[in-house]
Amino acid sequence: MNNSNIKILQISVTLIACAFLFVPMILSVMAGVTANYFQGVSSGLTFKWVFQVWELYAESIFLSLGLAIACLISTLIIGLPAAYGLARHPGWLSRILEEFISLPLAVPGLALALALLQLYGSMKGFRISWTFILVGHVLYTLPFMVRSILAVLASMDLKTLEEGASTLGASPWQRFRDIVVPNAMPGILAGSLTVVTLSIGEFNLTWMLHTPYLKTLPVGLADSYASMRLEIASAYTLVFFIIIVPLLMAMQWASARAQRIAQ
Amino acid sequence: MTICLTNTAKTFPDGTRALLPTDLTVETGEIVSLLGPSGCGKTTLLRIIAGLEDPDRGGKILFEEDDVTTLPVERRKVGMVFQSYALFPNMSVRANIGYGLKMQKLSKSEINARVTEVMEMCQLEKFSTRSIDALSGGQRQRVALARAIAPRPRLLLLDEPLSALDASMREALRDELAVLLRKFKITAIFVTHDQDEAMAIADRVAVMSNGHIVQSGTPEELYRNPNSPFVAGFVGNAMHLEGKRVGKMLELEGGRQKLPFDGSGYFVYVRAEDVQIDDTGSLSGEVETITFLGTHYRIGIKGIIPNVLTSIFVGQRAPEIGSKIKVNIKPETLMLLPEGVA
Predict the structure, then answer these.
(1) Domain positions in chain B
(2) What per-residue confidence (pLDDT) applies to B51?
(3) Fold of domain B3-234
(4) pTM exceeds 0.95 for this model
(5) Which of A158, A163, A166, A168 to mutate to probe the B interface, most B CBs <10 Å?
(6) What distance in Å separates the CA atoms of residue B207 and residue B34, rounded to the nearest whole number?
(7) CATH of region B239-338, choose from 1.10.10.60, 2.60.120.620, 2.40.50.140, 1.10.10.410
(8) Contact indicator for A231, A31 with CB cutoff of 8 Å
(9) DSSP letter assigned to residue B251
(10) pLDDT digits (tens, 9 = 90+) for B79-92
(11) Contacts of range B8-14, beta carbons closer than 8 Å, 24 or more positions apart
(12) CA-to-CA distance for A71 and A131, rounded, in angstroms?
């Protein structure tokens, strides 16, 4: 009797927590497909608003996707060798470097953006180019890439594996290609998904760095809330969900896998 | 292939002298073991030969006529079996074994043929497509050996190849390894801290201590004619008979022992199999421990030397613990080793 009461309590708390999380989302999404929000669902369901979002903000969506891919490529080019270097030469210097790379995690995005504006704001061509936002995103996401790869690399005896390959005739580049990269793959995958998800969802920093002609997905969302009908803003939320949720789920899966290997 | 090391030493950046200037020659087809306790420099020496460690200035390594001292490891054509095996977890058993052949840019069909041949030799056919994680310790050890052998190296180096295995498997694999190495007809150097392993596998054993080679010879030579107390103790666990040397006599706690010649300037050592329990013996002690080992008993005797003197007893009935016994040691079985040699 007592036990079942506890069970009921547990289930109710869980359900309430879920409702707390999901009801606003569901309401928002529903609003996006409702013909007239003020009349409620009885006014009928429609994809009109979603199409309108597409017309108005398609550019933002493509900009965000493009940025995310560019950000991914940049963090891979910088992050993979960086993580490899840190894993191969453990010591106090590496730890300081790792902390240094991780600094952007601790600094608020706004402060980071302000620093970038102070440094590069006067370079007009760069300031209004999308690469300016890219720099901000790379700074912000790089620690996630480095740490994710580093965790996997640190969990194996990289030095001996490379020595093994070297006695078999593999040059340093071949060892990196055949041994380091394939074994770091779970970390690379987890890091990549994290970087893409973060880059697409990033608002703070991007809000400071963007220009009226360069609105990313979240910035566009803020813009639609501020200036469009509620239905369009809600439909935008729906579009945002559709893009970000699968990425989030993939990220969860990849991180869990990388962590299992890193144990 | 003949390997010749001259004046090879290694000082680490922190100043540790891991290896003192050492000379070593290994003849073609010879299987040499570097034997010593941990920290004696044996692994450092092996890694220098492999090219994984640079020797200090002045050292020279020759493979036949080639001076390989400055040649990077990937171009030395040595095969190496690591203590942890260092198998690539991202590759199957087959791919691991074929990796060295791939690095030699052989054709696919040739790689396949060679890998199959080596896998047969090492009895790994069944595991070809398995991942490394799905292998037992002994199987991994064989894969590591097959991988090192497949590219037909000039020299095979093995770093404690059996130490990662549990005791019951170690002995079986030890004999297997000895057979395989001879089947490959390859010059090999292997490092171990286990004297039984060195004796069972090697043609010649180099005993190392504190960064240098103390003595090098066949297992029999080392066992019968050690040149120092260290070798006598490390190979075959000889016991030091501590006592006062008076001419051709040695005065021990448990009596007087005759020496083969004047013992001044020598330490006296004896092996357990030469310590005989015999009523006519000149030494008397008391049985402290008895261990039954199937074919024989190992009997610990106190009261003769400050430590326990061990005797191998092959009779049917061992004396009881606590009983007083007489011990006889034939003078000619004693090993007199000069004092002042490490």
Answers:
(1) 3-234, 239-338
(2) 94
(3) Rossmann fold (3.40.50)
(4) no
(5) A168
(6) 6
(7) 2.40.50.140
(8) yes
(9) E
(10) 999 999 999 999 99
(11) B8/B45, B8/B48, B8/B55, B8/B56, B8/B59, B8/B60, B8/B61, B9/B55, B9/B56, B9/B58, B9/B59, B10/B41, B10/B44, B10/B45, B10/B48, B10/B53, B10/B55, B10/B56, B11/B56
(12) 10
Distance between A69 CA and the closest CA of chain B, angstroms: 27
pLDDT band at A262 (very low <50, low <70, confident <90, very high): low
The pLDDT assigned to B214 comes to 93
What is the predicted pLDDT for the residue at A263?
58
- By the 8 A CB rule, do B253 and B306 touch? yes
Has residue A22 been placed in a domain?
no
Inter-chain residue contact A179 with B100, CB threshold 8 Å:
no
- The CA–CA distances, whole Å, from A52 to A63, A204, A217, A243, B153 equal 18, 26, 15, 17, 69
The minimum CA-CA distance between A155 and chain B, rounded to whole Å, is: 12
User: The CATH number of the domain where A195 resides is what?
Assistant: 1.10.3720.10
Q: Which of the given ranges, A18-22, A210-214, B171-175, B244-248, has the highest pLDDT on average?
A: A18-22
Q: Establish if A169 touches chain B: CB-CB under 8 angstroms.
A: yes
The count of C-alpha atoms lying within 13 angstroms of the C-alpha of B258, restricted to the half-sphere facing its C-beta, is 9
Instruction: Please give the structure tokens belonging to residue B101.
Output: 């052949």
Rounded CA separation B308/B299 (Å): 9
